[in-house]
Design brief:
This protein is α+β, with helices and mostly antiparallel strands. Helix content is 66%, strand content 12%. Strands 1-3-2 form a three-stranded antiparallel β-sheet.
Amino acid sequence: MTSGIDVGRQVDAVMSQTKTIKKWASVFDVLGNPIRLGILLVLFASNYLAGTHSLTFTQIKTVLGTSSDAGLSYHLAQLTKSGFVIKDPYKDEKGRVFPLYRSTEKVDRLLEDLGLAETFRDYIKSNL
């Protein structure tokens, strides 16, 4: 039989984890969409294969095979707002300025924390 003191300690232990639980819930809320998860994986693969996290909107759109510019823009904005993606201005040789998107260290840490980074690297290596 569990005493009232033991239950109290268990409740205290759970409540002390509330901040961590809320943090992970917000992460999964952002990453729970397949387009957003795909964007992060494309940026991760780009870094792994080419040594750069930065891709253009069109490159991301092409790799994902999405047809909606508005939808992709929305998802990139959500990832930027949540700190998973950074949007950098880039000026080409003709003087045109357009954004480059890159993942942040937050993505690398998340994949490492979840034990997925090596799995994704292995998958990328075996499918090229």
